[in-house]
Protein backbone atom coordinates (compact mmCIF):
# COMPACT_ATOMS: atom_id res chain seq x y z
CA UNK A 1 0.00 0.00 0.00
CA UNK A 2 1.03 3.63 -0.37
CA UNK A 3 1.77 4.01 3.33
CA UNK A 4 4.26 1.15 3.18
CA UNK A 5 5.91 2.69 0.10
CA UNK A 6 6.26 6.01 1.93
CA UNK A 7 7.62 4.25 5.02
CA UNK A 8 10.17 2.27 3.00
CA UNK A 9 11.32 5.42 1.22
CA UNK A 10 11.77 7.19 4.56
CA UNK A 11 8.89 9.66 4.20
CA UNK A 12 7.42 8.96 7.63
CA UNK A 13 5.12 11.98 7.51
CA UNK A 14 3.49 10.76 4.32
CA UNK A 15 3.26 7.24 5.73
CA UNK A 16 1.51 8.54 8.85
CA UNK A 17 -0.95 10.53 6.76
CA UNK A 18 -1.83 7.55 4.56
CA UNK A 19 -2.14 5.14 7.51
CA UNK A 20 -4.31 7.59 9.47
CA UNK A 21 -6.58 8.22 6.48
CA UNK A 22 -6.91 4.50 5.85
CA UNK A 23 -7.68 3.78 9.51
CA UNK A 24 -10.36 6.49 9.54
CA UNK A 25 -11.89 5.15 6.33
CA UNK A 26 -11.97 1.59 7.65
CA UNK A 27 -13.54 2.82 10.92
CA UNK A 28 -16.18 4.69 8.94
CA UNK A 29 -17.22 1.61 6.99
CA UNK A 30 -16.83 -0.71 9.98
CA UNK A 31 -14.09 -2.90 8.52
CA UNK A 32 -12.37 -4.54 11.48
CA UNK A 33 -9.96 -6.37 9.13
CA UNK A 34 -8.93 -3.11 7.51
CA UNK A 35 -8.61 -1.32 10.84
CA UNK A 36 -6.46 -4.13 12.22
CA UNK A 37 -4.10 -3.86 9.25
CA UNK A 38 -3.74 -0.11 9.30
CA UNK A 39 -3.44 0.06 13.09
CA UNK A 40 -0.58 -2.43 12.84
CA UNK A 41 1.10 -0.15 10.32
CA UNK A 42 0.50 2.92 12.50
CA UNK A 43 1.94 1.12 15.51
CA UNK A 44 5.07 0.13 13.57
CA UNK A 45 5.47 3.76 12.53
CA UNK A 46 5.01 4.91 16.14
CA UNK A 47 7.72 2.48 17.23
CA UNK A 48 10.00 3.81 14.48
CA UNK A 49 9.38 7.36 15.71
CA UNK A 50 10.07 6.28 19.31
CA UNK A 51 6.53 6.97 20.47
CA UNK A 52 6.07 3.87 22.63
CA UNK A 53 2.91 5.01 24.46
CA UNK A 54 1.17 5.77 21.17
CA UNK A 55 2.37 2.45 19.75
CA UNK A 56 1.17 0.62 22.86
CA UNK A 57 -2.32 2.12 22.57
CA UNK A 58 -2.50 1.31 18.85
CA UNK A 59 -1.27 -2.22 19.45
CA UNK A 60 -3.77 -2.91 22.21
CA UNK A 61 -6.60 -1.93 19.86
CA UNK A 62 -4.95 -3.88 17.06
CA UNK A 63 -4.65 -6.96 19.27
CA UNK A 64 -8.34 -6.78 20.19
CA UNK A 65 -9.31 -6.50 16.52
CA UNK A 66 -7.03 -9.37 15.47
CA UNK A 67 -8.64 -11.60 18.10
CA UNK A 68 -12.14 -10.54 16.99
CA UNK A 69 -11.54 -11.28 13.31
CA UNK A 70 -9.56 -14.47 14.00
CA UNK A 71 -6.19 -13.51 12.54
CA UNK A 72 -3.60 -15.36 14.65
CA UNK A 73 -0.70 -14.44 12.36
CA UNK A 74 -1.34 -10.72 12.84
CA UNK A 75 -2.04 -11.34 16.52
CA UNK A 76 1.39 -12.85 17.12
CA UNK A 77 3.13 -10.04 15.23
CA UNK A 78 1.12 -7.52 17.25
CA UNK A 79 2.06 -9.20 20.55
CA UNK A 80 5.77 -9.06 19.67
CA UNK A 81 5.53 -5.36 18.76
CA UNK A 82 3.56 -4.73 21.95
CA UNK A 83 6.45 -6.28 23.88
CA UNK A 84 8.83 -3.81 22.20
CA UNK A 85 6.62 -0.86 23.15
CA UNK A 86 6.32 -2.14 26.72
CA UNK A 87 10.10 -2.42 26.98
CA UNK A 88 10.48 1.16 25.79
CA UNK A 89 7.97 2.20 28.48
CA UNK A 90 9.93 0.34 31.17
CA UNK A 91 7.40 -2.47 31.61
CA UNK A 92 9.71 -5.46 31.29
CA UNK A 93 7.33 -7.85 33.06
CA UNK A 94 4.48 -6.86 30.71
CA UNK A 95 6.83 -7.19 27.75
CA UNK A 96 7.77 -10.70 28.83
CA UNK A 97 4.10 -11.63 29.13
CA UNK A 98 3.33 -10.23 25.66
CA UNK A 99 6.35 -11.96 24.11
CA UNK A 100 5.37 -15.27 25.70
CA UNK A 101 1.84 -14.90 24.34
CA UNK A 102 3.27 -14.15 20.88
CA UNK A 103 5.50 -17.20 21.01
CA UNK A 104 2.63 -19.43 22.12
CA UNK A 105 0.37 -18.34 19.24
CA UNK A 106 3.21 -18.49 16.70
CA UNK A 107 4.11 -21.99 17.83
CA UNK A 108 0.46 -23.10 17.74
CA UNK A 109 0.02 -21.95 14.14
CA UNK A 110 3.45 -23.20 13.04
CA UNK A 111 4.86 -19.79 12.13
CA UNK A 112 8.55 -20.20 12.92
CA UNK A 113 9.43 -16.70 11.73
CA UNK A 114 7.13 -15.05 14.27
CA UNK A 115 8.14 -17.59 16.88
CA UNK A 116 11.75 -16.44 16.50
CA UNK A 117 10.69 -12.79 16.70
CA UNK A 118 8.86 -13.57 19.94
CA UNK A 119 11.95 -15.34 21.27
CA UNK A 120 14.01 -12.21 20.55
CA UNK A 121 11.44 -10.14 22.44
CA UNK A 122 11.53 -12.62 25.31
CA UNK A 123 15.31 -12.36 25.39
CA UNK A 124 15.11 -8.56 25.49
CA UNK A 125 12.55 -8.68 28.30
CA UNK A 126 14.66 -11.11 30.33
CA UNK A 127 17.66 -8.83 29.81
CA UNK A 128 15.68 -5.81 30.99
CA UNK A 129 14.85 -7.84 34.10
CA UNK A 130 18.58 -8.68 34.39
CA UNK A 131 17.90 -12.38 33.97
CA UNK A 132 20.99 -12.89 31.84
CA UNK A 133 20.88 -16.68 31.54
CA UNK A 134 17.25 -16.58 30.38
CA UNK A 135 18.04 -13.72 27.99
CA UNK A 136 20.93 -15.67 26.52
CA UNK A 137 18.83 -18.85 26.21
CA UNK A 138 15.97 -17.12 24.37
CA UNK A 139 18.35 -15.26 22.09
CA UNK A 140 20.19 -18.44 21.16
CA UNK A 141 16.85 -20.19 20.52
CA UNK A 142 15.81 -17.32 18.27
CA UNK A 143 19.02 -17.60 16.27
CA UNK A 144 18.52 -21.35 15.94
CA UNK A 145 14.90 -20.89 14.88
CA UNK A 146 15.85 -18.32 12.24
CA UNK A 147 18.61 -20.59 10.99
CA UNK A 148 16.23 -23.56 10.88
CA UNK A 149 13.82 -21.76 8.59
CA UNK A 150 16.64 -20.26 6.49
CA UNK A 151 15.48 -16.71 7.03
CA UNK A 152 17.75 -13.96 5.79
CA UNK A 153 17.52 -11.85 8.92
CA UNK A 154 21.23 -11.47 9.53
CA UNK A 155 20.79 -8.52 11.87
CA UNK A 156 18.39 -10.42 14.13
CA UNK A 157 20.65 -13.45 14.14
CA UNK A 158 23.59 -11.14 14.83
CA UNK A 159 21.70 -9.54 17.71
CA UNK A 160 20.89 -12.98 19.09
CA UNK A 161 24.53 -14.10 18.85
CA UNK A 162 25.61 -10.88 20.57
CA UNK A 163 23.06 -11.45 23.31
CA UNK A 164 24.31 -14.99 23.79
CA UNK A 165 27.72 -13.54 24.66
CA UNK A 166 26.15 -11.45 27.45
CA UNK A 167 25.63 -7.73 28.05
CA UNK A 168 28.00 -5.29 26.42
CA UNK A 169 28.82 -1.68 27.28
CA UNK A 170 26.57 0.59 25.24
CA UNK A 171 23.75 -1.94 24.87
CA UNK A 172 20.28 -0.48 24.97
CA UNK A 173 19.24 -0.40 28.65
CA UNK A 174 15.91 -2.06 27.85
CA UNK A 175 17.37 -5.04 26.07
CA UNK A 176 20.24 -7.07 24.82
CA UNK A 177 21.18 -6.72 21.18
CA UNK A 178 20.08 -3.15 20.59
CA UNK A 179 22.62 -0.51 20.00
Topology:
Blueprint: H1 2-8, H2 12-29, H3 32-48, H4 52-69, H5 72-88, H6 92-109, H7 112-128, H8 132-148, H9 154-164
Helix pairs in contact: 1-2, 2-3, 3-4, 3-5, 4-5, 5-6, 5-7, 6-7, 7-8, 8-9
Average pLDDT figure: 85
Query: What is the ordering of alpha helices and beta strands?
Result: HHHHHHHHH
- Morphology call: globular
**Beta-strand share of residues:** under 5%
SSE-based structural type: mainly alpha
Question: Which ranges are low-confidence, i.e. pLDDT below 50, for 5 or more consecutive residues?
Answer: 168-179
Radius of gyration: 16 Å
Distance between the termini: 30 Å
What oligomeric assembly is this protein in?
Answer: single chain
Counting DSSP E segments of at least 2 residues, the number of strands comes to: 0
Count of runs of 4 or more consecutive helical residues: 9
**What is the percent of helical residues?**
over 70%
Largest sheet: none
Amino acid sequence: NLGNVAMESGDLGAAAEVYEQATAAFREIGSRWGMAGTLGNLAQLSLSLVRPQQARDQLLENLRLCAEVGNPTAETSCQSRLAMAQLELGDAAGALESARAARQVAHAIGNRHYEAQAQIAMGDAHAALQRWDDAREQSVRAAETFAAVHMGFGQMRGDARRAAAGPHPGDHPAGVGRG
